[in-house]
Every structure is written in structure tokens, then in C-alpha cells.
Amino acid sequence: MNIESNIKNEIKRINDARGRKIIVLDDDPTGVQTVHDIDVLTRWDQELLREAFDAPESLFYILTNTRGLDAKAAERINREIACNVHTVADESGRSFTLISRSDSTLRGYYPLEIDTLSEEVRRLSGRGYDGHLIIPAFFEAGRVTYDNIHYMIENEHFVPVHETEFAKDKVFGYSNGDLTKWVEEKTEGRSHALECLVISLEQIRKGPEAVKEALLEAANNVPIIVNVLLYEDMDVVSLALLQAEEQGKSFIFRTAASFVKSYAGISDQAFLGHERLIARGQEGHGGIVVVGSYVQKTTRQLEHLLTMPGIVGLEIQVEHILDPKGRMQELERVIAEANQQLAEGRNVVVYSSRELITGETKVDNFKISQTVSESLVEVVRSLEVIPKFIIAKGGITSSDVATKGLGIRKARVLGQAAAGIPVWLTGDEAKFSGIPYIIFPGNVGGDRTLLEIVEKIERKS
Prior knowledge:
The chain has 461 residues and is α/β, with parallel strands linked by helices. It contains 15 helices and 18 strands.
């Protein structure tokens, strides 16, 4: 047995023996893009949390959707979850670990969410964390960290994330790709770059013991930057973390999706085949693709999808839905056409017009974004024909379609349709129960990936 297999087996052994729950607070629905056969909750009331604590799996997700909300709402939701989780954990006598899963291109509410969770856990338990690990690597989509610089791999080129369109985000933008300096920027100087604890690639490749010794030095919730290029590196870090925790250390995590798979010991699984991407009994209907993301990658993917023979593109004009007088007329037009085309067996793409309309402030931009998302949700909510599949493109869009459009309370993660593209099975309570819901992140895939998934469903090459 090779070293990598030994490390994976030891990770699984420790997790099985501890019996604690690993709870991932996911700021949009795309974070389950590396796991399978686990539950994701879209609510966090104590009754639903008890179900999750009673389930046999050691891991579950809670969809918070905080990346699509304002800062006050994000803080409130994280406090509510921490309080309810602590109550249910106390009742069950089980320990838990919190992972704040966010974007692999560094967008989201850091340090707000880590600060809020850490404060609430300290208030409720009387114990603080020794460190919070920052691990934005997401290998499936070509996101890696080396010498503290976080990169996107595009066409075999390593591009620092601060040089990409994602760093110019209207709400979560930043100027530093060096994660130590990014921490200083985001904390507004509260945590100085030189104060960060760095886990280097050189340390990792000496093995778990070297990493564990570094982690044992952590104190006072220090930011811990982790450099990783491969899952083998991540597995070394995960084992070292588990061993350090067994020696009394306590950590909280701000990570992308790859860390969860490694730390929780989730096995590999092949991409889902055609038969698991289509709803049984609905083969005669069309499927629907809902596109809200405005990043350039999504727009290119949409353009390719619209070239597919027989597919019907329905564009929602954003300037019309921002006008209270024109909104309902625009939506009624799209809804009527979507229902007719689905009933006749044609696949439909509903998408917001591609010209990005922005306001003067972050609050204005949030309102515009929410209005667009609410309009896409209204289309899904008004469907009278059960589609044979649903694809939602973009984090905010996919979250709102799941919770507001489909009414999902709890879903089962089946796996992935392609690298980094998760598939949920909707629950009994959903508007359309037992159908595949494909969540396509805005920043994942090549230009043809969206087209290729629809072709896979239709068994076309």
C-alpha cells in the first residue's frame, strides 16, 4: 500500500473513531462540488439539525447563501446557525467542527463570517479557537496556492487571482493575491501579514508530522495560510490537522471545496452518467437552464449553449424588470413561452440580458442583483410543466432557484455532472420532487462545458 493510501485510510479511521459532525456552512450551493451521498440543508432550525445529527454520515452541509446577502444578514445567519448547532450538539452529546466554505476566487464575507462563528462558539462553549485555516485551493477548477500566492490555472497558465475579473467584484473585490497580504487587506490591518502562520509546500512534503508540529504552535485564532498544489498535499494537511486536534488543538476553517473532501475522508466517485441527470417519467418534456451569473466565463458558456440545435433561448431584459411597470409583462412573456416549449419537449435557456447594469453603491448593486435573481426564480416558480432536468448557472441564482423557486428544504447530493459541478436530488417537499438539480458555478468549466452537459443529458456528442 502506498503512502497516499495510508494517509487516506488514517484520515478515515480518525474520523470514524471520533464520531463528531463536520458541518459545512456554504455561502452558495456550489460548495458540494467535491462530495457525494450526503445531505445539504437549506434551513437551520433545530428540528432539521436534529435529523442531520442523527444521520449516519459524519458530514453535512448547510446552505446559508450569505454571499448573495448584505453583511448584516450574513452575520445574523452565522450567529443563528452557531447557536442552534451548539444546542443540538449538546442534546446529542456529540462534538462538531465548523467549516465556512466560500469562493475559490476569494470572494465572500471574510473575516466577518469567521469572526462571527468564533465569537459565538466562544460565548456558548467558553473556548476559543487556536487558529483559522485559509485554504481556497479547488483543484477540480484549477485553483492552487503556492508561495502564499493564490492562482487560477487557465489554459495551463498560472494567473494570480488578483489579476482576474473576480478580484474586481463590485462587492467583494480585493487587490492582493498573496494570502498573507489579502488577510491584512480584508481585516483592515487588524491581522498583519507577518503575523499569519504559513504552512509551506516544503513543510507539507516532509509529511504530516512536520505540519502537525507547525499547527501545534497556533494560538489566539491566528490566520493560517496553507499552500497546496495537489490532493496529496491536502491529505497531508488534513491528517496533520486531525492529529493536532487529538492533542487538544481547536481550529475553524475558511476554505473552498477541495479541503472538505480531504478532511472528511470522502471517497472518489466517477462523474454521473446520463441516466442520473434526467428525471424518470419526464423524458418527453424539455429541460430548463437558468443563467444569472454575469462573469465573462458564464457569458461565453451561454453563447456556446445557444448554438445547440433545437434549444430555445429566452432572454429576460434586465432594464424591463428593473422598471416596476414593465416587470410583470416581461416575466409573463418568458413564463408562457417556457411552459409551452417544455411541454413540447424542447430544452429552454432562460437568461438575463448580458449587459451588466450597476448602481452607485454596493447596496444598489445588491438590489439590482436580487431583482434579477428574483425574476429568474419567478420563472421557475411559475412552471406548470415538470422539466426533465434543471440547471442553474451562478451561485446566487442556483441558491435562490433551490430555496425560493423549488422550495427545497433538504436535498441529497448525488455527485458531480462534471468537474466542480454538483447535482442534487430534490426532496419530497420540493415543487418538483425527485428530479436532478444541476448546480453550475459561475466561475467553473471551459467555454463548452455548459453545452457539453446538456449534450450529455441528451446523449449527443
